[in-house]
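DEPOSITED CHAIN:
***
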Amino acid sequence: MADRRTLLDRVLQNKKAYRRWNKAEALVIDEISMVDAELFESLEYIARKLRGGDKVWGGIQLVVSGDFFQLPPVFGLHNSSGKEFAFEADCWNASFDMQLELTEIFRQSDARFIKMLQGIRRGDCDPQDLEVLEQLCSRTESDELDPSVVQLYPLNEDVRRVNEMRMESLSEAATTYVASDSGENPWKMQLQEGIAPDELFLCEGARVMLIKNLNTWRGLVNGNTGTVIGFLESKGVDVRDICTENLLPIVKFDSGPTKVIEPETWVVTEADTVVAERKQLPLLLAWARSIHRCQGMTLDKLHTNLSRAFGCGMVYVALSRVRSLEGLQLSGFSPSKIKAHPKVLQFYKSFACGRITTEGKDEGANKIRVYTSSLVHVSNTTNKGASKYHFSLSEFISSRQKRK
């Protein structure tokens, strides 16, 4: 990543980006665990410099969410500060009026599985739970894998291998889509490092995943999965630059809709100018996926191979995607792969959080949940003298609105 001054110059040269930063009232960052301290500090610097004054984030209200026990940011060699997580940023505590820990689990309902996952989340697992996982591993390895069950792997090379193997097992002839790129290096290289594939091979029966939002109202969003059920000759859009047969795939999505998938474009811009562009179908093969790509997913059935698992949080993220132990198939597991980062453990110990409870309240036909929370007010960047305040969520939102 470029240094913060270079990033600021790029925003200043980009009229749209400059306008967005200056008009913004609030900035919401999800999956904050994937944001490193350097990026967090750079974003705060850009906001403050663009908007003027000395207010942190230039006065923008910052809301972040996520779980630092999940996958950590990619910690590059360029980072000489030694600060890995966003909460290590110098401006972290000054960025928030309050920090909360949410404790109610929604994805799973089985108390035993929840207890197991919470132990794994913190890098621990009691002997009884380890025995359950090892028995599950033995049973899975003796069973034949169901191709309809999503497979998760730590490494992209395993994902590619499994997807290619599944494609070869289908008897249908494959249609090839080769990305059409324009632009000059080094910008063109950014497209090659992006998510849209250089080549994509599809046939009837292929499991695929969307990699771009197409229609949020119909649920056709990034990460949605489906099956190719046929092909249609393209009439309105000429796609011979990516497919010599001029065919478009028809995908039946698991969420219900059926759609003919047309090419999308991915661009690299510099100072408001498009300097590189890739045209390709917004699809990837999806029999197998990386654990990194599955963060945020919820599955009824799942097979995960952890033989090459590395790093903190990986086992927890993989296992916690599935709703129940009954839906979990496991292989390559060993207790040594359960890891939680020491800095994350210390972070959650460093501020006291109350339990979040809910109670139902009927308002006509609507059911409203009222949350009662212990909120930690961080008074300064050194975390000294942090105090607890008790509010309902509705009171909290109301207080924020009154301040506008």
Observations:
- Residues 353-404 have pLDDT under 50 and may be disordered.
- The chain has two domains: 4-102+351-402, 156-288.
- The two ends are 35 Å apart (CA to CA).
- DSSP finds eleven helices and 20 strands in the chain.
